[in-house]
Amino acid sequence: MEKKIIMKTNVNKTSTGIKVVAPPKGAKAGDRILAGFIDFGFLFILVQLTNHFFDLSSLLSTDFMIPTQGLIFSYYYFVLIIVPHSIFSQTLGKMLMKLKVVSQTKHQRLSLSKVIIRDIFMRPLAIVMPLTLKNRNGVAVHDRICGSVVVEAR
Fold first, then answer.
1. Mind listing the pLDDT tens digit of every residue in the chain (154 residues)?
2. Angstrom distance (rounded) from CA 65 to CA 61
């Protein structure tokens, strides 16, 4: 059973009396950027602390070319970004900024596959094409491609 996420939407009545629900407005760019800084700052601190207190390089052979910090980052990125987006529709930064990531059509949390597409494959697009490239509802380019939107949570 999927949990319906309550969010602010615009409801208008037409001349026929049918209610039309407008797509939700995207969250403010400043709030999204601050949430991203919180998430990646926390991620960076955890990677550095793990690397400092645990010598994981001795566990890897010298033939293995991926740096230890890259493996640690990938693990924490999955645990702290991808899993929370899929389960709670929020990361730590989004929780603190009172934001959620939901699907544009059903207004529900994203499936794990959509979260992986959004957070792994579309993240570079979000960095290359800044949040200023939004449509009239405030939805960023990478969210439009993935069918998601970041909204203010209640």
1. 555 544 444 444 445 555 555 556 778 878 888 998 999 999 999 988 887 787 766 665 555 556 777 788 889 999 999 999 999 999 999 999 999 999 888 888 888 888 998 888 887 777 666 655 667 677 777 788 888 888 888 7
2. 9
Q: Where are the domains of the chain?
A: 11-152
Q: Cα–Cα distance between 56 and 25 in angstroms, integer?
A: 44
Cβ of 63: how many Cβ atoms within 10 Å?
5
C-beta of residue 146 within 8 angstroms of C-beta of residue 118: yes
Q: Which token pair is 7?
A: 């969010």
Number of residues assigned to the chain? 154
Asked whether the beta carbons of 49 and 148 are under 8 A apart, the reply is: no
Q: Are strands 11-13 and 19-21 parallel, antiparallel or unpaired?
A: antiparallel
